[in-house]
């Protein structure tokens, strides 16, 4: 296992980058703690795979350094970094059996036969392929091959880090849950440093100790799932995490009050009088309909999703969502919305303001 440090790291695929937009990975300083499990979360093209390939040594950064336990490995080849990487699409040896594929990384490092057999059996159980151990990989389904690829990444116990680049893309949904559970169990047992790249928030939030959210080539927040949900540091995090995402509403903030078109709503903290583009952000779960208090809204439609209902409404021209429990009827007179002050965030130019105790 290793502590991974990114020191003033940036990367551009252009020969002479000049603007932030020229960078696939904007300058960042980041430290991945030894033995923790991280998820790199963001949409396609945000820089996740670029960052993972720099860590693994498949790509040299345009600037900055990468260190493992304080040792500069920026120019070290992948083989010297002692990492295991599992890619989005399966990489297996078709002429080998499943057993031989799983054993290959261990045999390549000269491990004894008994240890190899023990680890192969354990990993085969993890990925649910005990019955296929003596089958050749050629002819197996894509998801079976990806399980082999995943197992080969997990078979070594002595790696500095395990890197996963959207490894469950071709796996069926039921098996995804099982494999994520196995990955978490593996992490708890061996405390490998794990970095898991995904665009799926469910995968990220259920797998990782901490989630690193990326947007447009930069890291916009690192936090626990609860922190990302309750206190998004950037409006993109609020939008990307949660279903539906956070409501963002233009506002003029004075002290502990947010003034919106149609009225005002109290805040739990004081913010002075911030300038620039100011918005409040509130999760649909922390909004409720009322007949007597709050801000006027127009209800556009109600979506029943089984566990709860999602009310789609408009607040003075701004679309918002409200999560309502199943059961209680939504009366015709419920045309106002109330926000829980303790869960209203204030943003200036997309970044969250901390505020002071009111």
Automatic annotation (TrEMBL):
The segment(s) forming the ABC transporter domain are 4-241
What SUPFAM superfamilies does the annotation carry? MOP-like, P-loop containing nucleoside triphosphate hydrolases
Q: Which Pfam families match?
A: ABC_tran, OB_MalK
Q: Which GO terms describe its molecular function?
A: ABC-type ferric iron transporter activity; ATP binding; ATP hydrolysis activity
Nucleotide-binding among keywords: yes
Top-level taxon? Bacteria
Q: Which cellular component terms (GO) are annotated to the entry?
A: ATP-binding cassette (ABC) transporter complex, substrate-binding subunit-containing
Q: Does the keyword Cell division apply?
A: no
Fetch the SMART domains from UniProt.
Answer: AAA
Sorted keywords for this record are: ATP-binding, Cell membrane, Membrane, Nucleotide-binding, Transport
Q: Which InterPro entries does the UniProt entry name for this protein? A: AAA+_ATPase, ABC_transporter-like_ATP-bd, ABC_transpr_FbpC, ABC_transpr_MalK/UgpC-like, Mo/tungstate-bd_C_term_dom, NA-bd_OB-fold, OB_MalK-like, P-loop_NTPase
Q: Which family does it belong to?
A: Belongs to the ABC transporter superfamily.
Recorded protein name is Carbohydrate ABC transporter ATP-binding protein, CUT1 family
Record organism: Albimonas pacifica
